[in-house]
Write a structure and sequence with these properties.
rod-shaped, 446 residues, Beta-Lactamase
């Protein structure tokens, strides 16, 4: 069922319920008003006839007054003297029950009874006097006219309600489609957007107020898509550049080697160089695959509790030959316990420490510190040096500074550190403090 049909059905149901409630309310209100009118008429007529009797008017002459003051088509008058026969004035066509004259009714109050046809009869009985003789005076009104009026009103109300429902059924889809026209406009605006136009926000000034939140949400989504698309394009460009260099090297070496006969030693050196380049491509592919899985939280963590100080010492021992080439000192200060994936912890720290060794001045020292705080543990790697340019891009893929051609590495090390931190609910960052560049990774503790 379409949205127009659902809204139309809801409006028709609402219209039917509203019409039913209004008709029922007005019907009962009209019915009550007619009953009160009849009861007031009975009271007035009874008082008038009672006054005539008390003023000495003979009971036999009262039917003449009755003809003048009352609607003989729906009113009944019964005068029951203490002695003699009752005077009955009944031209309504309603057959009164035999017990009508003898039945005890509440004197001075409006009583109700139903004849054999189910017609309601309102009755008022009062005690009066004709001279010295007690008289029982009964005035009644048959509600046949009232019933016909209510039935006519009921029929007319049903016709009006049915017409209103049919009108609602016909007009509602037209009005709803007109109201939803803005959604179609928004759909066309969204449909015509190309990748080059993702950064351009939708023109929301032509939309109604109710659709402004949707337009704002679409604009925010477009901004995120534009940013992701830009990153994806840049990533493809960087990846192509990174892959082109080793592939070109492999292709050039093999072409040169095959240009003329070579010795076995030359072929062995070529194979060794090819293996070295292929190992670099394998590391690059593994790093990219890990980053892709990390972004989608598709990396299973094998958390365990360990002392980071011991592991940091082992990592420094592993990288000591690389530090000795630049006459660097590796200094570790760590304590506490950490709950994390041990292999990923090693990978992140090795990347940070390798980055620190690579950029530290010869003869200086690289400091590795583990800072334990409630709910987290931070590993900091600090090396002397001037502030780095573009700190906002340090943890992006393939970023190797402004002079990327002369910077070794693939530019994925810090991006891997950031991804490992995110997997552990932490963060990675950089700051320059007291003449040192400090890179850190923070692990949240469960």
């Amino acid at each position: 069922m379409s949205l127009v049909q659902r809204i139309t059905l809801s409006m028709v149901v609402l219209m039917a319920l509203t019409c039913g409630a209004v008709v029922a309310t007005l019907y009962h209100g009209l019915q009550r008003a007619l009953i009160l009118r009849d009861e007031q008429t009975l009271s007035n007529r009874a008082e008038q006839i009672d006054q005539l009797l008390r003023d000495g008017a003979p009971a036999q002459t009262l039917p003449r007054y009755f003809d003048r003051m009352m609607d003989t088509a729906q009113d009944i008058l019964v005068i029951q003297p203490a002695r003699g026969e009752a005077i009955v004035m009944n031209r309504t066509g309603v057959v009164l029950p035999e017990s009508f004259s003898r039945r005890a009714f509440d004197a001075g109050k409006i009583n109700h009874l139903t004849d054999r046809d189910g017609v309601d009869i309102s009755l008022l009985r009062i005690a009066s006097r004709a001279g010295e003789m007690p008289v029982l005076l009964t005035v009644a009104r048959v509600a046949r006219t009232r019933g016909e009026m209510l039935a006519s009103y009921h029929r007319l109300s049903l016709v009006v309600c049915a017409g209103a429902i049919v009108l609602c059924l016909v007009i509602s889809p037209l009005l709803i489609r007109r109201g939803l026209r803005a959604i179609r406009v928004l759909s066309r605006m969204t449909e015509t957007i190309s990748s080059a136009q993702l950064g351009q926000p939708l023109a929301a000034e032509r939309l109604p107020e109710e659709l402004l939140p949707l337009a704002a949400a679409l604009n925010r989504m477009r901004a995120r898509l534009a940013e992701d698309f830009t990153r994806l394009t840049q990533f493809c460009d960087d990846l192509a550049h990174e892959m082109r260099t080793p592939v070109s090297v492999l292709l050039g070496q093999n072409q040169v080697m095959l240009s003329k006969p070579r010795t076995v030693a030359d072929y062995q050196r070529l194979i060794e160089d090819n293996i070295e380049e292929l190992e670099g491509l394998t590391r690059l592919t593994d790093s990219l695959l890990f980053l892709a899985r990390a972004e989608h939280r598709n990396v299973g963590l094998e958390r365990q509790t360990f002392a980071p100080g011991e592991l940091l010492a082992d990592i420094c021992a592993f990288l000591a030959p690389l530090a000795e080439e630049k006459q660097l000192a590796l200094r570790v200060q760590a304590g506490g316990q950490l709950n994390a994936d041990k292999l990923l912890f090693q990978r992140a720290v090795i990347n940070l420490l390798t980055n620190g060794i690579r950029h530290a001045p010869a003869g200086s020292a690289v400091h590795i510190t583990a800072l334990a705080r409630p709910g987290s543990l931070t590993i900091e790697v600090a090396n002397p040096g001037p502030p780095l340019a573009r700190p906002d891009r340090l943890f992006q893929r393939f970023w190797r500074g402004e002079d990327a051609r002369h910077t070794p590495g693939s530019g994925l090390g810090l991006a891997l550190v950031s991804a490992i931190a995110a997997l552990h609910g932490g963060e990675a960052g950089y700051r320059h403090q007291r003449g040192s560049n400090i890179f850190f990774i923070r692990f949240s503790q469960p």
